[in-house]
UniProtKB/TrEMBL annotation:
Keywords: ATP-binding, DNA replication, Nucleotide-binding. Heteromultimer composed of small subunits (RfcS) and large subunits (RfcL). The gene is rfc. The lineage of its organism: Archaea, Methanobacteriati, Methanobacteriota, Stenosarchaea group, Halobacteria. Belongs to the activator 1 small subunits family. RfcS subfamily. Part of the RFC clamp loader complex which loads the PCNA sliding clamp onto DNA. HAMAP family: RfcS. GO terms for biological process: DNA repair; DNA-templated DNA replication. InterPro entries: AAA+_ATPase, ATPase_AAA_core, DNA_pol3_clamp-load_cplx_C, DNA_Rep/Repair_Clamp_Loader, P-loop_NTPase, Rep_factor-C_ssu_arc, Rep_factorC_C, RFC_lid. Gene3D superfamilies: 1.10.8.60, 1.20.272.10, P-loop containing nucleotide triphosphate hydrolases (3.40.50.300). This is Replication factor C small subunit. It comes from the Archaea. Signal peptide: none annotated. Residues 48-178 form the AAA+ ATPase domain. CDD domains: AAA (cd00009), HLD_clamp_RFC (cd18140).
Amino acid sequence: MSETEESEPAGPGREEIWVEKYRPGTLGEVIGQEEITDRLERYVERDDLPNLLFSGSAGIGKTTCATAIAREVYGEDWRDNFLELNASDDRGIDVVRGRIKEFARASFGGYSYRIIFLDEADSLTSDAQSALRRTMEQFSSNTRFILSCNYSSKIIDPIQSRCAVFRFSPISDAAVGERIREIAHIEGIEITDGGVEALVYAADGDMRRAVNSLQAAAVMGETVDEEVVYTITATARPEEIEAMVTSALEGDFTTARATLDDLLSNKGLSGGDIIDQLHRSVWDLGLSDREAVRTLDRIGETDYRITEGANERIQLEAFLASLTLADEA
């Protein structure tokens, strides 16, 4: 049992942030990335830690694994030997030449190396990445770098070649659901099966979002059910998305547009949220392969236009209209 499980539950509404309260402290406690954590544990056991590159979407354990490595290598001294920087805030070359070099050069005792963790490293400019590569070479004897990014393709090849690359995958629905039930039990929260399923759907493999959503839902009432979850996460029910697309495909544009208007105006979803859910629902609509491919093509085009700054409502209505007119094309 971890330390967080031994603590006294305080009931919904407490000031603690559950994402931090229930963040795994060791690699063995990390959920859903067993193959990666097994390899990382072997590095730590052999005291043979290379530079590491973690890539993958948000909320799937990259930062947690980095801090867990530091805790296991340094014990109680981990904060003194672990520097965490967020590259999305400090994007320039001066940060690489400044804070990183200053930390790497600082004297320390008892350990053969220190760890620098650079989160969102794909936000660094090309010049900053080049400077980072030189810094990694210069301090290779006494510093280990852990880089975290969403897209490894944005990291220059000279850095990738100096790192052991680990590609994190979204956490499985079963693992997210199990963790949600565990936290709800510890906190004394009543949660329905529908509430768990809704949290799993809204999280879409992001454990951080699932835990944050559970904490937000816990203050809404005595019971966390699907209605509460969909409300606080600004997520449409899967059946609403499917009904909207089905209406358009059947030629009933008016009904499809009314559903879209309800999602945008009454439920507060953004165009990007709807696009994401549309993409996730395509293969659940019972479409033929040809219809599914055509729908995905239109989703991609709509997503691009919205991302480029076009009006969300107009683009989504045009998407539904294109589905309605598909048989006439």
